Amino acid sequence: MCITLLRTFSSRTNLFITHSMAMRQSSDMAKFKETLKAAKEVVILSGAGISAESGIPTFRGAGGYWRKYQASSLATPEAFRHSPSLVWEFYHYRREVAAKAQPNQGHIAIAYYESTHESEKKITVITQNVDGLHVRAGTKNLIELHGNLYKTRCTKCKEVLVNNDSPICEALAGRGAPDVNVVGSDIPVKSLPHCKKSDCGGLLRPHIVWFGESLNAAVLNKAETAMATCDICLVVGTSSVVYPAAMFAPKAAARGAVVAEFNLEPTPATSDFHYYFEGPCGTTLPKALFD
After folding, report:
1. 24 — phi, psi (to 5°)?
2. How many CB atoms are located within 10 Å of the residue 224 CB?
3. Distant-in-sequence, close-in-space partners of 200: CB < 8 Å, separation ≥ 6
4. Residues with catalytic roles
5. How confident is the model over 126-170, as pLDDT tens digits?
6. Omega before residue 266 within 30° of 0, cis
């Protein structure tokens, strides 16, 4: 009996907390814009949702497969060691898709906000995306947590370089199509991208933080520093389930920063935030960031 009563009480308490958070949360755009106007340090944290609106497939949901492979299973050091040719075909496909995509109104709104307020506010954009769309939209103060599709890293000398070649090497021309009937890759490793330094020649890999790898310490520190001092944080198109980025906004809210979420649907962290605006980022962000 006591256990049953305790469970009932706990359930009612959780409902009360959830209801209280909902009561405190606002979707008042005018009120949010006043709060944003008063802020001196602004962080915008973006995830796959904003890029999905530009046609970039995501690792989760309907876009989570390439050919018959779970995309996340190819984004690992183990997959690259086992079959660098297959992984490079996958990333060649991703590079080509991203190159054809265009920044949407959400990306443009963020870049516009930065350009028009950078003289009066410290504005930092932190993205989990690797597609380069924020840069193409015009964002300047950008932290790319997970790397960039258009950068390579030498597996031997570790040099990181920007590479926008299409294709990145001749052997990948016409390859990488998401044909479910294609299995594996027959591209010789010697034909894959290699370091061009005469004293190296090491195999290149995409400069992406793969599953099982840690974020670059300097990049993570820069992001955490921005999150630790911001007055307001906009969470844009992110599921809030990929760590460590998933804890950035909840920790900011816990220390007193205002957090506003812009998403198609609520996430596990939504109840921790002060504002929630439902809908496509390309629709909600211009309303929030255009004067």
Report:
1. -80, -25
2. 15
3. 154, 156, 157, 159
4. 146
5. 999 999 999 999 999 999 999 999 999 999 999 999 999 999 999
6. no
